[in-house]
Design brief:
Blueprint (H helix, E strand, L loop, with lengths): L1 E3 L5 E4 L6 E8 L10 E8 L3 E2 L6 E9 L2 E6 L2 E6 L4 E5 L4 E5 L4 E9 L3 E9 L2 E4 L4 E8 L1 E6 L2 E6 L3 E3 L10 E4 L4 E9 L1
Length: about 190
């Protein structure tokens, strides 16, 4: 298990060059945009535009801040806003984003569909939540929380995360939060 702070994340240009993303985790470590198995990032989106194309990749996009975005995924509409927090779609079809009342910050999860599948879960407020066994990453978007297991405890605050390794058993860990904590949990399932 590895705790990560914003200093550990990597800033890099979008694949299409139209913006910048913050890569928070990638597998395998140091994989490129062309050969990752799964990838977790966040980005600021300040103008309408087309998404980068990622062949063979499935995506989930979740809203971190702002009013939201309307996606057209191969002509099919998806809205990501405060009520509908996320959208799941293929990363290799034409996708256009139209912002709703200004810039947003988003959380992106991508996985290579021939190798694995992914699931993104959002939790907020008061909670005591035992992590699923196939959890690979927990991100504290806002607020604070604590991961506990047996006699171990690890605090998380704004924009910090935990990445689990293949040697860890995330199901041994419980996430506890009160008040305004907002968390994203990434699960990866091998095919």
């Amino acid at each position: 298990m590895n705790k990560l702070t914003p200093d550990d994340y990597r800033s890099m240009p979008w694949k299409n060059g139209a913006g910048t993303t913050i890569e928070m985790a990638v597998f395998p470590e140091h994989a490129s945009l062309d050969n990752f198995v799964w990838r977790i990032s966040r980005a600021q989106v300040v103008t309408d535009g087309d998404f980068s194309c990622f062949a063979g990749i499935d995506r989930t996009l979740a809203l971190l801040s702002g009013q939201g975005v309307r996606l057209s995924v191969n002509g099919v509409p998806h809205q990501v806003d405060r009520q509908t927090n996320m959208a799941v779609f293929p990363g290799d079809v034409r996708t256009h984003a139209a912002l709703i009342n200004g810039p947003i910050s988003d959380f992106n999860l991508m996985s290579r569909r021939t190798v694995c599948s992914h699931q993104l879960t959002y939790r907020e407020g008061d909670m005591t939540w035992r992590l699923p066994a196939n959890t690979v990453f927990v991100y504290c978007a806002h607020g604070a929380g604590r991961l506990t297991a047996a006699d171990l405890a690890l605090g998380l605050t704004d924009q910090e995360s935990v990445q689990f390794s293949s040697d860890d058993n995330p199901a041994d860990w419980t996430l506890e939060s009160s008040g305004a904590g907002q968390f994203y949990c990434v699960q990866i399932q091998a095919r």
